[in-house]
Design goal:
The protein is α/β, with parallel strands linked by helices and 256 residues long. It contains eleven helices and seven strands. The chain has a seven-stranded mixed β-sheet with strand order 3-2-1-4-5-7-6, sandwiched between helices. Helix 4 packs parallel to helix 7 and helix 7 packs parallel to helix 8.
Length: 256
Amino acid sequence: MSEITRVLKTFIGYLKRPDLYPELGRKIIKNTVNRGNAFKGKEKTGSWAAERAITQKEAVLKLFGSEIDSFRVDYQDVLQEAIRRENACPVKMGGAGALELIYYACEFTGAKQVVETGVAYGWSSLASLLSISKRYGTLYSSDMPYLAQDSDQYVGYVVPEPLKPNWKLFRFADKESLPKIFAENQFFDVIHYDSDKSYNGRMWAYDELYRHLRKGGVFISDDIGDNSAYQDFCEKNNLETTVVEYEGKYIGVFIK
């Protein structure tokens, strides 16, 4: 699909969904007036993150007191089936991230209420659900519809059916999804952010999500090296954060 075709198809997709008009307006501003916003402070945070980065294994042991090796053994069959489903999926989306970090954050907090932004295949959803389903908890997920491709039916594709009763999926932009989620549940044990990558988008979401994270809860944000939003947020709130290097990217995590 050419870039022009993709943009046109996305625009038409928005026009067919009046409930997404607010996000369309934000997209237009982001891609015109605020084009440089996505990479604001990137160089500063790149150095900051590199100086502090540790491995996922080190981070889980440091923060949660757990070794991560048993995860891949205990859930070998589930993970192999998830890989098979991803490989068979006709639409390509984002791959698996630091699953152990998410899983052990849920185990550490005894999580029953988790919120995430960004789903794609559902790898992070799977990691959360494997933990919280043991406590009959609920995962609330915010994920924008994929308007440029016919892939909505594949969102969360790797999540097995037995885990889906513990999952609520909201198909709007974060600014519309999160208020709906917070209306259902006020405080969360774990928060995982992996959606709007822009500086302004992150700062808005970080503030909203942080207010709804319980004391002792865990906050995780992917791709914090894209810009300085995560670093600035942590410094503004005097938060001591751990930085995880994973597959060439940086993840931020802290306990409230």
